[in-house]
Request: fold
Amino acid sequence: MSHDIRTPMNAIVGFTALAKNAASNETVLNYLDRIETASSQLLKLLNDVLEISRLEAGKIQIEEKPCDLLDILKNVQMAVHPWATEKKIDFSLDVSQVHHYEIYGDGQKLEQILLRLTKNAIKYTAAGGKITVAIVELYEQLQSYATYQFIVEDNGIGISEEFQKHIFEPFEREQNTTLSGVQGTGLGLTIIRNMINLMEGDIEVQSVPGKGSKFTVTLAFRLHNETEKRGEKEDVFYGPVGNKKILLVEDNEINVEIATELLKNVGFRVDTALNGKIAVEKVAKEKPEEYDLILMDIQMPVMDGYQAARLIRGMEDPKRAGIPIVAVSANTFDEDKKLSMESGMNAHIGKPIDISELLLLIRELIYKKESGTL
Ligand code: ADP
Reply:
């Protein structure tokens, strides 16, 4: 179902972006801006409703995999960086009280939880405000476990005591936020609370209206054996993209048109392949360093994205086999991401493509590739 709902949304969001580039008339631009805002709200609502129904149906499971808490925080920082910068928010990470970064746990869910809390903090804090995301390692219950607090604190509009009692219930939004026109679904915190319950943790809120809010998530994780304390803060890379060439693999012609235009508009060179088989043939035939990155649709006729990624990873020439591959799919659940990773892809993003998110991801992957850390 989710694929059927998201695919037409993809066309709406994509063509609106293209129409905005093509429009020169003020009135038309104004209407397009409104379509863009409304469709992105609708998409958020759809995604949240689908996520809740899956959580409630018990379809979401917790995975225990090795992950690094610092990487998770950096991903959160990277995802919100453009928005926080635009709002002139003083955004800081504090990991000074962490002794073990490497844990076994569901890193993807933890990242989603922290990302949602951080986005809320930015959303409900006026321009020029201050937000801190901190991890505090509390104690080791057993030698191989540790309890962590993940704290997202802002100095924004705050939450009344009365509303704090209902804040985790579905569709609940405080009146001051709805009145001030801040968009939202009231489902984010319900999703967060459900996920934390699944992870056998806890979430608390402390807040003073007008002063700010502090959300504290407490979770216990099993530790990796060999872990050490690391540097306190590391900067995230935001290097230039340069004259890079992308192979766009996508069967839907509307999506090809939209994505090609969006990528060309920000300076990429773009080549296209209408299915996985054509993509594999192109990578094998062209020079090994021809493509800097591949954007790979998943559901395609003749050969799907998973199979194409596996064939590319299996190529003899290491330059060809090592091209960064990003799965671009209308299916964005954890299981879909897992399948992409298992096929050798480096990342998985949802459709409709959020071009600023994609740009950050491309930069990160190209940088990692060039510095030999991919
Ligand atoms: P949404 O933000 O989409 O409305 P959430 O479930 O994430 O949904 O949040 C529910 C409500 O809780 C918000 O509408 C807002 O009233 C309040 N809220 C959440 N986070 C904060 C925050 N950091 N500061 C102030 N209010 C908040």
